Amino acid sequence: MAYLRKKSMEFLKSFEVPSKNPSEDAQRRWRDAVGTLVKNRRRRFRMVPDLDKRSQAETQRRKIQEKLRVALYVQKAALQFIDAARRTAEQHPLPELARQCGFSISAEELASVVRGHDGKSLRHHKGVDGVARKVNVSLSTGVKADDAGVRAEVYGSNTYAEKPARTFWMFLWDASQDMTLMLLALCAVVSVVIGVATEGWPGGVSDGAGIMLTIALVVAITAASDYKQSLQFRDLDKEKKKIDIQVTRDGLRQKVSIYDIVVGDVVHLSIGDQVPADGLFIDGYSFFVDESSLSGESEPVHVSANNRFLLGGTKVQDGSARMLVTAVGMRTEWGNLMETLSQGGEDETPLQVKLNGVATIIGKIGLAFAVLTFTVLMARFLLAKANANALLVWGMEDALSVLNFFAVAVTIIVVAVPEGLPLAVTLSLAFAMKKLMQERALVRHLSACETMGSASCICTDKTGTLTTNHMVVEKVWLAGAATTVSTAKGFEELVTASALSSEGFTKVLLEGVFHCSGSEVVRGKDGRTSIMGTPTETALLEFGLGVEKRTGVDHGAAATKHRVEPFNSVKKTMGVVIASPSAGGRPRAFLKGASEVVLRKCSAVVNDRHGGVETLTEKNAKRVAGAIDAFACEALRTLCLAYQDVPVGAENAAEIPGEGYTLLAVFGIKDPLRPGVREAVRTCHAAGINVRMVTGDNINTAKAIARECGILTEDGVAIEGPEFRQMSPDQMREVIPKIQLMARSLPLDKHTLVTNLRGMFGEVVAVTGDGTNDAPALHEADIGLAMGIAGTEVAKENADVIIMDDNFSTIINVAKWGRSVYINIQKFVQFQLTVNVVALIVNFVSASFTGSAPLTIVQLLWVNLIMDTLGALALATEPPSDAMMRRPPVGRGDNFITKVMWRNIVGQSIYQLLILGVLLFRGKALFHMDAGADELLNTFVFNTFVFCQVFNEVNSREMEKVNVFSGVFSSWVFSAVVGATVAFQAVLVELLGTFAGTVHLSGRLWLMSVLIGSVSLPVGALLKCIPVGSGDGASSDRHDGYQPIPTGPSAV
């Protein structure tokens, strides 16, 4: 046994793949290890990527990228290279429909301008303004909403060619490609032919017809289950592709779906956005685009008035801009590339691969048993003929007997090769993903749902995840005094008794608030004013609107912006240079951002209510820093706003001034803790999941929030990013396990923390992120969690799960469902292996001693359906319980089939084998049956065997707890499957006896079948009182202090 176990472990090493970005070698290794012992390759590998197709798609994608690289970087050659086949003598005739609708340029000509980066053609069309006139759109008011449909008809819609969805009939065809079912169908046909020849019609048809009807039932149920899964995945795919983008239509800025974009739309782009279509740069600031997804070049491209071409599918790396859409859908290069992106399917999950390995080992054992059973049956048959001196005399009945032996052997393979194991993972994941979608979590990658169940650490942002992200300015520090402005009374005091009583100071402050902002005040169709932008800037603009309303001072909306440096998480500031109305149109720079960063760049401060300025001495700096710390200790986010006058002629300098600013104000912004966060953090700790807050905020603000939600404890470490960055690897190794809070961190710090948690400590790490610069950490983590509301498209694309409501509590639901998937598959494997063991041994032993198998082909096929498709439906779709979050996560190195599972499998198998053995050899005597009542006994054995599986299915709901009925009615699928199994068993025995090889059972025998089967429940309870070791998994000695849950009576 030790030798077999060692060989099995060595074999299963081929079935180990990482949860993210597995290498092609690892993927091919396990496929080769599976070999040819696969009943239905089409179905078993349906959710596994086709590596050959993927390789072909990759080659095609590289060709397109190479073509685009030429177009982007060798433009003159590109004009002949890329469009030679498309152009006809430089002419693109204008379709009649376009002319009737008021357009004066064709879709092909318009698309070719951007696709070929054709500056000459753009100049020919009089630049962006000329193109706008030809597509009949105003760059200031945008497309008229009523014209969108006409534009889509003339220039096309922003959709891409997709493979048609698979129909139910395709799944039916896949399910019918099972090699063993085909062999059985062939046997059934031969059986019908021989049966009619020997017994006539209709008596000779029953055996073969029964097999064929059962095969049809198996195929139909299997196909229906697979088709339902495909519908769930199709719905999830639609959700994944939903991207909203900001456009100007009817003069109003609004959000529309990326698929509703039309030619002529004026699109607003900012950091992290995906460019939704091909287009031309209208205006913008510091605008850089990452074109690597198209060209393969990693260097960002600066898009400006000198290079106006924007390609769909690229990502905004920095800055902001407006774009005029010129080509959509399949007329863009991104549209052509999209056809290759989905080729080959999504990567298989580690659990799918592991279970393919388990299925392969069991399949080999089953094949050996099938061969042995056929050999024993044939040997006994030939021996009997030899004893009767009829070895050379063969008739139709003899041929039918041999055919039946062969069919029994094939059916044993059907039962023994558990094709349903890896497919049960897909079923469970599809169910979990659908439920998570309802709970506001969109799973982008299958493996993430599975891996999240093993998460031992969550590195979470603060803003918007732990807090509500509904921000308001709570306090403001102006001219040496702090005022609470969240109440009407406080706001009035600020306006009348502070520096805001000075009109000159108020103008400067309002210019800074409104112009040094990436957000915008817009007026809706109903005339109401709203703000489009980030919650932080929304809070500041709402404050500015309040000041304008109360003071009557205008912020000078028409001021020209000379230069803008948008906010990003590395600089932690935003800067702008404007022609200041309050300075007579002279250039003035404003700087806004993290308090200590802005304060370091200031050399003066507004010091009195009249707007007077004095030098920022050490004493004044300490006074400002004290105000910042006071705000932060009240859990307020702090921002500083500063300004300086710029010399005339220097406004167009390459960079905004880096020092010499005058401090205007310090804002304290309130962002309340989300309801339920404290409970969610407590749940994480009970589940053995460490929660670490990683934020760019001030450390005092972060500490206050972390303590409030229970993340920061007395023995925990709070550290700042700059300090963490300076540590050596040895210092990091010592401090990382204690870190509960990292403040003032850069995205690189988050990436370093995640890398070390995974590499040094073997943690399974989940990371939240929303910004473009969070992409490396999201990609590096075992599970990347992007925010659905605050998250950029770049962050979402690099994430495994999108948290649609940005709520930390939703992350806990993902972890709970992840654990549910893992445990549900363990339950199903335990149940299926028990059926495998019993069915194999009963048939083999019976064939050896009696010369016939007690379970007929139809009966074995029914048992296979119970333990495969129906078993997976019942056990793999159970909802999670709160108890799952009161146990530690599964470690990276833990065995999937645990000692607890082996205990249950072996114990239940021994009970069932003993009972069925007694019934087979002593059943007639025990139940006073006639000596020739073989059919009655076999029917009784079959019925008892099925009820043993039904009650063992109930037993498998809990692997370690005695109470297996807890929450049984909360899973209607489980109840429905068990009820349907019992009902169909009654029909099979009592009404379909001719086809199933059964006879009528009396009420007494039915009762005995149920009672014997129900003994599985107390047997299961007794087994669970037998303690087993924790195994040799990696989680037996965890550095986080958690131990595996106990087994035995204490777990009851």
UniProtKB/TrEMBL annotation:
Matching entries from PROSITE patterns are given as:
ATPASE_E1_E2 (PS00154)
Question: What SUPFAM superfamilies does the database record attribute to this sequence?
Answer: Calcium ATPase, transduction domain A (SSF81653), Calcium ATPase, transmembrane domain M (SSF81665), HAD-like (SSF56784), Metal cation-transporting ATPase, ATP-binding domain N (SSF81660)
- Localization: Membrane
User: What keywords were assigned to this record?
Assistant: ATP-binding, Calcium, Calcium transport, Calmodulin-binding, Ion transport, Magnesium, Membrane, Metal-binding, Nucleotide-binding, Translocase, Transmembrane, Transmembrane helix, Transport
**What InterPro entries does UniProt report for this protein, alphabetically?**
ATPase_P-typ_cation-transptr_C, ATPase_P-typ_cation-transptr_N, ATPase_P-typ_cyto_dom_N, ATPase_P-typ_P_site, ATPase_P-typ_TM_dom_sf, ATPase_P-typ_transduc_dom_A_sf, ATPase_P-type_domA, Ca_ATPase_N_dom
Give the SMART domains listed for this entry. Answer: Cation_ATPase_N
Question: Which stretches of sequence are listed as region Disordered?
Answer: 1031-1052
Q: Does the keyword Transmembrane helix apply?
A: yes
Q: Give the EC number(s) listed in the UniProt record.
A: 7.2.2.10
One GO MF term on file is: ATP binding
User: What membrane topology does the UniProt entry give?
Assistant: Multi-pass membrane protein
Similarity comment text for this entry:
Belongs to the cation transport ATPase (P-type) (TC 3.A.3) family. Type IIB subfamily.
Question: Which NCBIfam families does the UniProt entry name for this protein?
Answer: ATPase-IIB_Ca, ATPase_P-type
Q: What does the UniProt function comment say about this protein?
A: Catalyzes the hydrolysis of ATP coupled with the transport of calcium.
Quote the protein name from its UniProt record.
Answer: Calcium-transporting ATPase
- Tell me which species this is from: Brachypodium distachyon (Purple false brome)
